[in-house]
Design goal:
The chain is mainly alpha-helical and 249 residues long. The chain has a domain of 149 residues. Helices cover 63% and strands 3% of the residues. The protein has nine helices and four strands, in the order ααααααββααββα. The strands form two sheets. A two-stranded antiparallel sheet has the order 1-2. A two-stranded antiparallel ribbon has the order 3-4. Strand 1 and strand 2 form a beta hairpin. Helix 6 packs parallel to helix 8.
Length: 249
């Protein structure tokens, strides 16, 4: 079954999973936008501009990082290959673009983040499936009965673990009742995601090391978990004030 899935969505067809997740996630986010006092139209535009910035920013950042190669072959800048892309640069461009758009539209920060949570949760599920199809984010070798053959070894199906954990997280944030404090839904999602990423990092077989000792993914997950829990407590305990939410800036 897994082999059939991987053959159907072998790269670059694995991107179909992410495209489908963008469509579904945006639809669900827009459906729930009103409960977070956010316009569905503004939220849809925010996601659209963010995605465009992610694609363009990731390609431009990669080109600047390999400028000598692109100077020799400038037309390769328009190559559709996904290998000529930097996710970090794309992420920075997307965040900056969404902040600028949000400020111009006077969208409140925490309300908007809550409204974006279903979109991000669906995307997290598809990301695990995309990793499975591409053979990335693979697990350590194991002799467990549910191991999958990958890269000349039987390995932990960490991509499936990832998708299942993300699916459970989506189910939780989708069923949570709205709270009077904007931001708690988003911070709950971030804390849960960082938590299971921290746990699953112990089974990853492709982890980069921080200071040649600590898995970089787990170090990052610890940092995100600590910050999200701190912000959650701050948002939960803060007295209600006029103008709560803070305009995006």
């Amino acid at each position: 079954m897994i082999e059939l899935f991987r053959s159907l969505f072998t790269p670059p067809r694995h991107l179909i999973l992410l495209v489908a997740a963008v469509w579904l996630g945006q639809s669900l986010a827009e459906k729930r936008a009103a409960r977070h006092q956010v316009s569905a139209e503004a939220l849809g535009n925010l996601i659209f501009y963010g995605l465009v910035a992610f694609i363009l920013g990731g390609r431009l950042y990669y080109a600047l990082s390999h400028l000598a190669a692109f100077v020799k072959s400038p037309l390769s800048l328009f190559d559709i290959g996904v290998s000529l892309f930097d996710p970090f640069g794309g992420g920075v461009a997307a965040v900056l673009t969404m902040l600028v758009y949000g400020r111009r539209q006077k969208l409140e920060l925490w309300n908007t983040l809550d409204a974006l949570t279903p979109f991000l949760a669906v995307l997290a599920v598809a990301l695990g499936l995309s990793h499975l199809a591409a053979g990335t984010a693979y697990g350590r070798p194991t002799d467990l009965p549910w191991a999958i053959p990958l890269w000349n070894a039987d390995r932990h199906p960490t991509q499936i673990y990832e998708s299942l954990a993300a699916l459970l997280t989506f189910g939780l944030v989708w069923t949570l009742k709205p709270t009077p404090r904007p931001g708690l839904l988003f911070l709950t999602f971030i804390a849960l995601t960082a938590g299971w990423q921290l746990f699953l990092g112990a089974y990853r077989g492709d982890a980069s090391l921080f200071m040649e000792k600590f898995p970089l993914d787990q170090v990052g997950a610890w940092a995100v978990l600590a910050v999200s829990l701190g912000l959650y407590e701050w948002r939960r305990s803060r007295d209600q004030q006029a103008g709560d939410g803070n305009v995006l800036s």
